[in-house]
Amino acid sequence: MYVCLCEGVTDTQLRNAVADGCNSYKEVRLKTGVASQCGRCACQAKQVVRDALAEMTFDYDLAYPAACVAA
């Protein structure tokens, strides 16, 4: 879905920016240009970025295999 009509930015693009390493709304905004014109989309864009950041999880099972024993 389009979040920013002025710049043609979709929610997928915002989520991809987070997946590509953006750690804040400011970084996503700089990368995608979202909310850089009229600003009407800012609240929705911030929510999408918040949700995307919240969904980012670290799989501890992959980081510490069961075969690994503490010394």
TrEMBL record:
Q: Name one GO molecular function term.
A: metal ion binding
Cofactor requirements of the protein: [2Fe-2S] cluster
What keywords sit in the KW lines?
A: 2Fe-2S, Electron transport, Iron, Iron-sulfur, Metal-binding, Transport
Domain BFD-like [2Fe-2S]-binding, by residue range, is 2-49
Q: Which Pfam families match?
A: Fer2_BFD
Give the family per the record: Belongs to the Bfd family.
Protein's name in the database: Bacterioferritin-associated ferredoxin
Q: State the species of origin.
A: Atopomonas hussainii
Classification from the root reads: Bacteria, Pseudomonadati, Pseudomonadota, Gammaproteobacteria, Pseudomonadales
